[in-house]
Amino acid sequence: MSVQSSFRYPATLAFAALFLGWFADVYAAADTNPRLEQFAAVKSRQMEELAGKLHLDVPAEARAFFKAAEAGDYVSVSNAYAHIQQLTGPFGGSTSVTGYKNALNVPIHETWGAYEFYSWDPALLNRYAEGILGSIPANSVYLGGTDPGRFIITMFCDTTNAPISVLTPKFVVTQNALVETRYMDYLRLTQGDRLWLPSTNDMHNALQDYAASLQERQRRGEQLSPDEQVDGAGHIRGVLAVMNANGLLTRMIFNRNKEKHPFFVEESYVIGWMYPYMEPHGLILKLNNEPLASLDRHVVNDDTRYWDALSGELLADRHFTDNIAARKTYSKLRSAIGGLYMYRRMTDNAEAAYKQALNLCPTSPEANFRLAQLYLEGSRFDDALAVMERLEGQLNPGTEQEKVSQAIRQIQEMKRKTAERQTP
Length: 424
Fold this sequence. Notes:
By secondary structure, the chain is α/β, with parallel strands linked by helices. The chain has helices spanning 34-54, 60-70, 74-88, 105-115, 122-133, 147-158, 164-167, 181-191, 200-219, 239-257, 297-315, 318-321, 324-343, 347-360, 365-377, 381-394, 399-422; strands spanning 3-4, 140-144, 170-173, 229-230, 236-237, 263-266, 278-281, 284-287. Helices cover 58% and strands 6% of the residues.
């Protein structure tokens, strides 16, 4: 069986499937952060070690890529990575070059992932990494979903000039790639002696069972979402299907390791089983060992105070306000916590969190979608329209603005139909 997808930030409204693939961070030219060069050297050594364990030769293109990365030459790094992509296809996709059909692909991918943040001011990078890693204890499992949540954190964990609180041993895993065979092989080779991880058979059985459940739903006459599809051969396709499969594997890892390792999540796509276990934890979310009946009011109050102070400091920092990628990143973090409040039906807390996310990045599709969704669930159609119309006015004419305009028309239609039903 196989999976097919690409990973980007999620949309959250029912009508917002239109917006999958929206996000594309824009980076201004900047001097390379020396930490990136150190990270590249670490990953180059790791690739050589993995090649030794697997009795493989390191491809010449990979060595050229790491040579450029260790030199801090962003343009050459970008060109070298593009060349590797031409040979292999996107990470997680099909490959045509034997040298990359294995765990050797991951150090390359993670190095390039970190290099995509080369334009971030070093102090801003430090603040982000320390805000996450400095808040979690040693021996923790950190599930990093978004690109910054995975690649920046991996870079800081693997480089030696990080603050002491960051350097304490932690396991960094991305929940978005667990169905990717090469990535799971990489995790087993690098962390499998200290952390329980699904075997190849575990993965196959979980994915087979999930595909069978989708096929059974089809046999019962259910119309599957375009983002959750399965064919007759048991191949699943679509963002929702892939993330559901990732969720199954993430739960296996959690259940088998939770007694030995604290778990923390930086959310990308929603993984539904996690919500009963979650509570706010600074920038990210903590997974408790057992489901919570409710969120502790002290935890909620601490979350409010933390983000009130942090938002004020960030919005007063020119390095932050001038960096659209950083603004989207922090807005995403706050939106994820708002999503937990919404799950708990803590509507006031959710609304406040979404509004704070919009202050951090007014053009964030996710923050706008989630706030509009909150208003729609309360039949506050005018408030939902105001959110989307404000976003529409901030966008330049083109495809993105038209998608928002289409969403506005859908909300207007929902409002009209609701009014008709309420008319005597």
